[in-house]
Design goal:
Homotetramer. By secondary structure, the protein is α+β, with helices and mostly antiparallel strands. Helices cover 38% and strands 16% of the residues. The chain binds ribavirin triphosphate (RTP) and magnesium ion.
Length: 148
């Protein structure tokens, strides 16, 4: 089954949006298979956002993503990479549709609440960058078993 890397950025953690964001992907029907609250180092940030290293906003981007804890996650499901990007909305929250995470909670492009892998190649790269193999679980969900 397809997997993607999603991350609540420091602004989302500070604004107490972790639960809301996790809830959206749970309700959609995707499965959480890995998660951790962590502090990103400068080295990890520069590698993660390596594709942007020549952009004028690179320094600001690295500074922001290392400015406080992030909530890193691996989610699994059919077509989860592209669907999660749709649920996140456009990069600039001012262009992101209402109903998307950035459309509902973001205001500026520099603080846009959530990161998501943009392709199968970046999903594999980013999952391996942030998670060890044994931190990604495989399990089936049977909610009745946990109620009765
Ligand atoms: P992300 O990688 O964080 O999920 O965002 P994205 O794919 O939607 O956008 P991307 O083009 O990969 O840009 C990465 C992050 O850089 C910041 N950015 N700032 N000041 C600017 O013009 C500008 N453009 C991009 C955003 O925070 C964006 O999420
Ligand atoms: Mg990106």
């Amino acid at each position: 089954m397809e997997k993607t890397f999603l991350m609540v950025k420091p602004d989302g953690v500070q604004r107490e949006l972790v639960g809301e964001i996790v809830s959206r992907f749970e309700k959609k029907g995707f499965q959480l298979v890995g998660a951790k609250l962590m502090q990103i180092t400068k080295e990890l940030a520069e590698e993660h956002y390596g594709e942007h290293k020549d952009k004028p906003f690179f320094g600001e981007l690295v500074g922001f993503i290392t400015s406080g804890p992030v909530f890193a996650m691996v989610w699994e499901g059919e077509n989860v990479i592209a669907t999660a990007r749709q649920m996140m909305g456009k990069t600039n929250p001012q262009e992101a549709a209402p109903g998307t995470i950035r459309g509902d909670y973001g205001v500026t492009v520099g603080k846009n609440v959530i990161h998501g892998s943009d392709s199968p190649g970046s999903a594999e790269r980013e999952i391996n960058l942030f998670f060890e193999n044994d931190q990604i679980l495989s399990y089936t969900k049977d909610s009745n078993q946990w109620v009765y």
